[in-house]
Amino acid sequence: MPLPLELNGERRKPSKKLSFQGCQGGQAPVIPDPTRERIRMQATAGKLQIAPNQTYDFTSEDMIDEGEIGRGAFGAVNRMKFTHTGTVMAVKRIRSTVDEKEQKQLLMDLEVVMKSNDCNTIVTFYGALFKEGDCWICMELMDTSLDKFYKFICEKQQSPIPEPILAQITFATVRALNYLKEELKIIHRDVKPSNILLKRNGDIKLCDFGISGQLVDSIARTKDAGCRPYMAPERIDPQRAKGYDVRSDVWSLGITLMEVATGKFPYPKWGSVFEQLSQVVEGDPPRLSTTYNGMEFSIDFVNFVNTCLIKDERDRPKYGRLLQHPFIQQAEKSDTDVAAYVSEVLESMANNGITQFTTDLPAEGWNESFN
């Protein structure tokens, strides 16, 4: 699908830097002991903030399941309707192995995360609750994930995503990551195509953050975290893993962009953790070039991706430097009509029988499928 470099149409200009009102330094507040029991007793209920002045108490009984729209190692995402307002949202149900103490921390983290609703490149969070050990996270419903989107374009339409669109995806994602770190003191820890979401109105938003640090660490104790394909070398190598830094997410962003741009994950499929350790930690990093498998990329895009994939994290830039990169600077000034492109692809996906829904499996039944 051809797309001219200069596209007509309005694109929402990035908002000015937003102030963070809440816990100092973005840290979760310390809950006094008398409050802990109350939180434990109320863990099966939660609050939904649909709008700034529209907050509701809710339980799982207030949600009507309309079908599954996504699935991953940690759980499933279902489209659900809140009965009191008719609001349709995405509800991520995570199979949680966390104990009561960690549940309380997660609920506090989510309160901080809801402060991110001021940023237009981050998915809006409505609220959360725990039910029978599962964490239900209610968030804005988008139309598709970048994962499904690029695979349809590259595999079904046999064409790459136009670079002006890649530029807007990159710009939105870096802005979101930078906002999380600077305003909320949050590091994402799980940047990948399925966590970048698209809407037919042209919105590009990042999801799955905030709670990820606590929850992913907890689940990692029972799952093989070493097989996560977007993980940076310093996170895989036990000799170097000495605390998490945003530059590890920069690596994940580079892998994500290279995959989405070329239509192929930059490493061959690993058969074991040892293979991943050998290739990512000991081998050379993936490199994009201006001519890659018959595709043409600009020098600025190639340089941006390869900068993200600098193997030594000490030389890898943080978000401040990335936002000054020529590729990002050009994207910020561009008037690329993302809405027109996304709408056209979504229409083509629908015509090919591809919808939001992955299966007809109701939310109540997904536990059995993960055994």
Automatic annotation (TrEMBL):
Residues 63-328 form the Protein kinase domain. One of its GO terms (cellular component) is cytosol. CDD domains: PKc_MKK4 (cd06616). Keywords: ATP-binding, Kinase, Nucleotide-binding, Phosphoprotein, Serine/threonine-protein kinase, Transferase, Tyrosine-protein kinase. SUPFAM superfamilies: Protein kinase-like (PK-like) (SSF56112). It comes from the Eukaryota. Residues 1-25 are annotated as: Disordered. It holds the Pfam family Pkinase. InterPro entries: Kinase-like_dom_sf, Prot_kinase_dom, Protein_kinase_ATP_BS, Ser/Thr_kinase_AS. GO terms for biological process: cellular response to stress. The keyword Repeat does not apply. Its EC number is 2.7.12.2. Gene3D superfamilies: Phosphorylase Kinase, domain 1, Transferase(Phosphotransferase) domain 1. GO terms for molecular function: ATP binding; MAP kinase kinase activity; protein serine/threonine kinase activity; protein tyrosine kinase activity. ATP binds at K92. Belongs to the protein kinase superfamily. STE Ser/Thr protein kinase family. MAP kinase kinase subfamily. This is mitogen-activated protein kinase kinase. The lineage of its organism: Eukaryota, Metazoa, Ecdysozoa, Arthropoda, Hexapoda.
